[in-house]
């Protein structure tokens, strides 16, 4: 625990001195939707280039208000009495990349992308568990994206996409969790704000390892992001159209430290921060560094 406190103190000190140390001319601000998806001709980069997709970050410390000590007992063959002893504090990191496979499909307008995101929760401070990974979530995607330019209110709808999404934790029964979705993505810009609305349809699964996941996690996601100078904020909200007492919200603040090094503070509340926790409600707070955002 002493080592953890040293990490937290270090991150606090470097974040508090960010304004005096940072070289603002060298920092990269949040990308707009055209830059993210290479919509306009000036932003086209060609195919098979590996670029960042979702945020890439490392949280040196993530505290949870509720440990999921025993994965929720499911029905039938997915039931488990396994007991685990987890710490409330762990590390968390996310990596995410995408590459364009084909450019100019469907009358020269559509682009086909492949994306991959991996999220890890690591009990690095838990010596009793041999510092094991508590949960790993893998999320490959195929994305068909179209540029649009539709005026709406004082902004513009800039993109429309269709996504085939698979997410799983790679575990065996009874702690295996996975689902498949067809996701629509609508991207909207207003001044320095970006908004992405992603409703989805969960594809049927005869062996449902996480029954009722849409009741807990939701069937749509809303992502809002902006920046003020070199300080970036983004929020991710998952909710259901049928029930309003569940879902989740994630708040993120990315701040300059020195050069391209940026700090990252994250607060999460609700269900489904990971697949193994899809029906567990908790509040988590994480602090670390950010390497890439939307």
From TrEMBL:
<keyword id="KW-0998">Cell outer membrane</keyword>
<keyword id="KW-0106">Calcium</keyword>
<keyword id="KW-0479">Metal-binding</keyword>
<dbReference type="InterPro" id="IPR003187">
    <property type="entry name" value="PLipase_A1"/>
</dbReference>
<keyword id="KW-0732">Signal</keyword>
<comment type="subunit">
    <text>Homodimer; dimerization is reversible, and the dimeric form is the active one.</text>
</comment>
<keyword id="KW-1134">Transmembrane beta strand</keyword>
<dbReference type="Pfam" id="PF02253">
    <property type="entry name" value="PLA1"/>
</dbReference>
<protein>
    <recommendedName>
        <fullName>Phosphatidylcholine 1-acylhydrolase</fullName>
        <ecNumber>3.1.1.32</ecNumber>
        <ecNumber>3.1.1.4</ecNumber>
    </recommendedName>
</protein>
<keyword id="KW-0443">Lipid metabolism</keyword>
<keyword id="KW-0812">Transmembrane</keyword>
<dbReference type="InterPro" id="IPR036541">
    <property type="entry name" value="PLipase_A1_sf"/>
</dbReference>
<feature type="signal peptide">
    <location>
        <begin position="1"/>
        <end position="20"/>
    </location>
</feature>
<keyword id="KW-0378">Hydrolase</keyword>
<comment type="similarity">
    <text>Belongs to the phospholipase A1 family.</text>
</comment>
<keyword id="KW-0442">Lipid degradation</keyword>
<keyword id="KW-0472">Membrane</keyword>
């Amino acid at each position: 625990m002493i080592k953890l406190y040293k990490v937290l103190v270090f991150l606090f000190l470097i974040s508090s001195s960010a304004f005096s140390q940072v070289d603002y001319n060298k920092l990269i601000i949040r990308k707009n939707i055209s830059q993210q998806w290479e919509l306009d001709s000036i932003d086209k980069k060609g195919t098979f280039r590996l670029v960042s997709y979702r945020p890439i970050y490392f949280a040196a410390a993530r505290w949870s208000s509720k440990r999921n000590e025993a994965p929720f007992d499911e029905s039938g063959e997915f039931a488990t009495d396994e007991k685990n002893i987890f710490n409330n504090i762990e590390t968390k990191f996310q990596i995410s990349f995408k590459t364009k496979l084909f450019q100019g499909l469907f009358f020269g307008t559509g682009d086909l992308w492949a994306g991959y995101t991996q999220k890890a929760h690591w009990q690095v401070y838990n010596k009793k568990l041999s510092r094991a990974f508590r949960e790993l979530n893998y999320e490959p995607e195929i994305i068909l994206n179209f540029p649009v330019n539709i005026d709406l209110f004082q902004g513009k709808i800039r993109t429309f996409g269709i996504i085939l999404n698979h997410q799983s934790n790679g575990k065996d029964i009874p702690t295996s969790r996975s689902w498949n979705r067809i996701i629509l993505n609508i991207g909207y810009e207003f001044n320095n704000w970006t908004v992405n609305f992603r409703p989805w349809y969960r594809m049927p699964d005869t062996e449902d390892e996480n029954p009722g996941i849409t009741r807990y996690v939701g069937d749509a996601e809303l992502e809002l992001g902006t920046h003020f100078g070199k300080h970036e904020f983004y929020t991710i909200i998952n909710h259901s159209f049928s029930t309003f007492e569940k879902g989740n919200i994630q708040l993120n603040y990315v701040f300059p430290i020195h050069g391209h090094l940026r700090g990252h503070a994250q607060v999460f509340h609700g269900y489904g921060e990971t697949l193994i926790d899809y029906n567990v409600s908790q509040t988590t707070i994480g602090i670390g560094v950010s390497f890439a955002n939307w």
